[in-house]
Amino acid sequence: MSVKEYSDMIIRVIRYNLKVVFAGKFFWFLLAAFLFFAFFMFQQAWNRVEINEGSVYNLLLFPCLLLIFYPVVFGIQNDEDNRILEIIFGIPNYRYKVWGVRMLMMYVANFFILLLFGYVARLLLYPVNISEMAFQLLFPMLFFGNLAFMFSTITRSGNGTAVIMIVLGLALFIFMRGNRQLSLSYWNIFLNPFATPSEIHPLIWQNTILKSRIFLVIGAVVWLMIGFLNLQRREKFV
């Protein structure tokens, strides 16, 4: 197989998987994410709230999680609806490769979308470092995205997984924000790395950020591995 034929095959595989994953509905989640982001920007500008890198991170956090919500939560259900779940499970270990590639494509696509959102924020609100902002948002995206994938392998229902993730996300957000000490620790899943507290030394804060990102990466890997292990139960899905 020549290099051109191989590259054409890779492009066709990527297009097919993107079509299956996003199922023609991702545009509406992208539009909703942008509208939420635009509304939050307008609200901050209207109320003349002090805007800095920390506030821009908070503005982008919800659209960031919304972007990954649909393709991960409804991924297995879309496979079942499209009658390709049986095909995926019919080839030994192929399901891991399929979902590994799909997850990678989701995160890469959403990273570039976050770069675009960050550019809009840079033009309209504050001169943030776009690449650093998008990079920091990847950590909560990976954590919640892989967590949603794990729950989707347990419930096998997009609606069921959506309810679990919404309830769990709200509960964690209220709990983390309600405890001042916990909200400034590396255990805070929603920790804002750009909002340096005045009572904490910058070096200690940088160490807290590093521990937070390690914690989120480890959590993301654990959720992904549990999800892949759940996919071994072929009789549960087919």
Give a nutshell description of this structure:
Keywords: Membrane, Transmembrane, Transmembrane helix. By secondary structure, the chain is an all-alpha fold. It has one domain.
Describe this structure in words.
- The structure is a single chain.
- With 238 residues, this protein is an all-alpha fold.
- The chain has one domain (3-237).
- Helices cover 80% and strands 0% of the residues.
- The protein has eleven helices and no strands.
- It has helices at 3-22, 26-46, 53-73, 75-81, 85-90, 94-124, 130-155, 158-178, 180-183, 202-230, 234-237.
- The mean pLDDT is 79.
- This is Putative membrane protein.
- It comes from Petrimonas mucosa.
- The chain crosses the membrane at residues 20-42, 54-76, 104-121, 133-151, 158-176, 214-231.
- Keywords: Membrane, Transmembrane, Transmembrane helix.
